[in-house]
Write a structure and sequence with these properties.
The complex is a heterodimer of chains A (420) and B (122). With 420 residues, chain A is an alpha+beta fold. Chain A is built from 13 helices and 11 strands. In chain A, the strands form 3 sheets. A 5-stranded mixed β-sheet of chain A has the order 2-4-5-7-6. A 4-stranded antiparallel β-sheet of chain A has the order 9-10-8-11, with helices on both faces. Chain A is globular, with a radius of gyration of 26 Å. With 122 residues, chain B is an alpha/beta fold. Helices cover 44% and strands 19% of the residues of chain B. The longest helix of chain B has 13 residues. At the A-B interface, α4 and α5 of A face α1 and α4 of B.
Chain lengths: 420, 122
């Protein structure tokens, strides 16, 4: 059990005690920052030292652990006090603790950003890409800032093309980019303004733009704003300061996806940040996933695929007779059932063109895949009435000798199942 | 009686603050300061949810997770990895070991509680 009630004392003493806490935090915050900055500038020396001592863990992991755990404890103490764990708080105590909590959160964000930047610069960020419904992803981001926008009196608008395809990206990283751009747009937009997020389907790429009706950014700052530790003076920021790393990290994350992050802005006319993500052909998508899945096979060189395909003619007829929402719901149901009866909910599953889905089973030889295929076919029988389908397996190395051969053979198999 | 939560973490200050809040929220808490102690207590206590750190003495969190998920008596208990590690490969190994969710320190306490309630189907 915690000893904090004794340490903090009765709630009457809270203000005095919190002052001590806050004074501690005021000392800790710059010390932590200095430590991290110092460590970053001396990173080569420190890295050499770590290697010399044959330390297993690397620089980033050590700094990460040493900073994050005490920070988590500080945040918990402040959050517990605010939640009333040690009794009711006076208004003064609540205000001061809230200041401490906000600063602890800010420090967490500084540490996270510095560590992320260092990981990205070291080329150690890998993308975990999957097919994403971008409007859904954007909704999840705007939901988190909705209350803040309402409080500021800023309207939040989201729009997209009606027939938007699935975007192949790392959702966690793209949420990070969107959160940063939408957060910045809100921060620099005054009462009565608007922040709009728009997704457009281009031929070669998806364009996601975040616009605000703030004061805009002077042309001479357009390049500088994406630099590390850059803070450009903008009004309506309400004194909120960031780490100066958010846009630099966002640009790196977008570029890792093969896209670009740019700015269009004029003083007095607001700003628009636009990022692009490449559109994948289904062949390119399959090729990338097959190679990634092979890399993730840990115990063997077996990779099996379960291919589900609705009959093309019947599926097109179904698409004509029902609404987009209805056939999308049908595909979502087939995906849900396939995952439930599959080997693991975490197995990769992709939508491969009209009415076709492919599940990837790592480290699984043909015998194992056949059992999963039978289970899947039997669980999906009830959907046959809506639209006939076929399920088959294709395995490497049993059916296709190499990953490249597998990519070509899958395409032929899909054709055969859908039209044969 | 509140749901039983087992915390395995060697950072006593962190465990203490987490315990205070979770007890305040109505959960019943048991703790262990290393992986081996966790492996002895969990099969006996059968908690409703386990909060598991990765870097612990005796046995690390991945090993504990893999053993619990491989034992039919404990495999159905949801495991939430709670750790200061946050690199891509760590998340991957956490999932491969069978963890049901992964939260990085420092976290927002309300978000952690929401994640716990989702895993507990509350």
């Amino acid at each position: 059990m915690s000893h904090l009630p004794e340490l903090i004392g009765a709630s009457d003493d809270f203000v005095a005690q919190n002052r001590t806490y806050l004074a501690g935090l005021l000392v800790l915050v710059p010390l932590f920052c200095l430590y991290v900055l110092q460590s970053t500038s001396d990173s080569r020396k420190l890295r050499a030292h770590l290697i010399e001592n044959q330390t297993k863990d690397d620089f980033v992991t050590i700094v990460s652990h040493e900073l994050r755990t005490p920070l988590a404890t500080i945040s918990n103490v402040l959050s517990n006090a605010l939640a009333g764990v040690w009794g009711e708080l006076s208004d003064d105590a609540r205000n001061e603790l809230q200041t401490g909590h906000t600063n602890a959160k800010r420090l967490s964000s500084v540490v996270s950003n510095l560590l992320d930047m260092s990981t990205i610069r070291a080329g150690r960020v890998s993308l975990e890409k999957s097919q994403i419904d971008m409007p859904g992803l954007i909704d999840s981001v705007t939901r988190t800032v909705k209350a803040n926008a309402e409080e500021k009196g800023v309207a939040l608008l989201v729009s997209h093309d009606p027939y938007l395809g699935l975007v192949f990206c790392d959702p966690e990283k793209i949420v990070r980019v969107l959160t940063n751009l939408v957060g910045n747009a809100l921060k620099f937009t005054g009462e009565g303004g608007t922040v709009s997020v728009r997704i457009q389907n281009g031929l070669d790429d998806f364009q996601i733009s975040v616009s605000d009706t703030g004061d805009g950014i002077a042309p001479e700052h357009h390049d500088r704003i994406f630099g590390r530790f850059e803070q450009v003076d903008r009004t309506h920021g309400g004194g909120e300061k960031g780490t100066g790393l958010g846009l630099a990290i966002s640009r790196e994350l977008v570029e890792l996806h093969g896209g670009a992050l740019t700015l269009q802005s004029e003083l007095g006319l607001g700003s628009t940040f636009i990022f692009t993500l490449p559109v994948y052909t289904r062949e390119a998508l399959l090729e990338e996933i097959v190679h990634t899945e092979f890399k993730l096979c840990h115990q063997s060189d077996y990779l099996s695929l379960i291919v589900f395909a609705f009959k093309t003619d019947e599926f097109r007829a179904l698409q004509e007779e029902c609404s987009v929402e209805e056939w999308k719901r049908l595909l979502a149901e087939v995906e849900r059932v396939s995952r439930q009866v599959g080997r693991s909910m975490h197995d990769t599953l992709i939508h491969y063109g009209d009415g076709c889905m492919i599940t990837f089973l790592r480290d699984t030889p043909k015998s194992g895949a056949t059992a999963v295929r039978d289970r899947m076919a039997s669980a999906l029988t009830s959907y046959e009435e809506r639209c006939p389908f076929k399920v088959a397996t294709i395995c490497c190395p049993e059916d296709s000798a190499t990953p490249d051969a597998l990519v070509g053979d899958v395409d032929n198999l899909v054709e055969e199942l859908a039209n044969g | 009686m509140g749901k039983k939560i087992f915390i395995a973490d060697d950072e006593s200050g962190f465990v203490s603050t987490l315990t205070s809040r979770l007890e305040f929220e109505g959960f019943e808490i048991t703790t262990a300061a290393d992986g081996k102690a966790a492996m002895e207590l969990i099969p006996v206590q059968k908690p409703d949810l386990i909060l598991l750190d990765i870097m612990m003495p005796a046995m690390n969190g991945y090993q504990v997770c893999r053993e619990l998920k491989g034992n039919p008596d404990t495999s159905s208990i949801p495991i939430l990895m709670l750790t200061a590690k946050s690199q891509e490969s760590d998340k991957f190994w956490g999932k491969e070991a069978g963890a049901d969710a992964y939260v990085t320190k420092p976290f927002d306490m309300d978000e952690l509680i929401a994640e716990m309630r989702a895993l507990l189907d509350e």
